[in-house]
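Bench notes, afternoon.
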Amino acid sequence: MYAYGPVPSRRLGKSIGVSPIPAKVCSYSCVYCQLGRTSKLQTRRERFFPKEDILRDIEAVVKSESADVITFAGDGEPTLCDDLGWLVRKSKAEFSLPVAVITNGSLLWSEDVQSDLLAADIILPTLDAGTHDLFKQINRPHGSITFEKMTSGMIEFRKNYTGQIWLEIMLIKGLNDSDRQLAILKDSVQNVSPDRVYVMTPIRPPAEDWVMCPDQERTRYAEQLLSQAIAISDHEEGNFGVAEFANATEAILEISARHPLRREQALAIEQKFDETGAIDRLLKEQKISLYSYYQSQYIRPVKAPNFFNLPKNKTVEIKIVRVNCCSFRVTVISDAEQLHYRVILADAYYNNLARGQMSKEQLLELCFQYFVNNGLLVRLETKFVLRDICRQYPEFEMGIKNTIIKEESSYHAN
């Protein structure tokens, strides 16, 4: 699914999140990212999913629960989505809610990106450093992005944008919390001239285990130095919207993949579905793990290899449920256990593989039977885009096409 929530936001209230890009596609690989290291580092914009499907997903969530704002954030960098401007304008026109975009700000030098963001009500860019060396150390950007290019883009965008810019700064102990680094950072913040400045701390499990929160004294100093900045160092409060999920198990797995869940938040989800024991069962099945960080326990989804390894040619039942045009729930059921996947199959790639000879559901059933027969389930994420997994493993596409040919030959022979 592309839209989810509402989720409780410490800056925006009840926020309907929208992810128009695949997981962990980003122009940065920040050391503090709560979603882990970036798997695909890029600056090229592209259309990842059908924009109409994303809009209909937003509509479904808007109708399910009340919210304060629609927030394009993604599981990476949302401005990499080439349809972002269209989605922002359509969302404002159809749903009568303010629209925010949480971005790392790395592509604001692009005229296309600037144009796409002009219709948004609030832009929340990131600025964690005041020098190129520290920028590289903290944000680990794509090689084409320099500190000067990034900051000049923010400054130029500020000149043309009439909405609110809320600048976010992530303070990390021993990196950007010294008097010297904060003084340099202050100059860059003043050049951008944001309407608000938020000083954040990494209270959720970061991509790199060595990342630590600064001392409270350092946070207070930064808050005072950076033009009366607002410090946010506490956990968000409030409930997660779960109307789009079938049960607590699915909700916990999906939400924790995008937004690290504290154990107490997952327990609240159990109560919403009256599904006591979902967390314990997922732990026992090794589908989630618990990670302690700053006196809180967080839930992390575990990749398939750790809990589901069917032998080749194992007899299984494969269930396909269409969520929308291009999004499907796939359940692979064996005698002992079952595994749930969320798969995106866009029209263009469906046509490339199936040539209109079968439905999307039939194609996905063939794909997963191929994965089972060849012992490949262990190489799949629990949520993936079929096109992207086949680009990552070209032999998958060849194997799927051969499976389709065999299926067609068997049909004509009969």
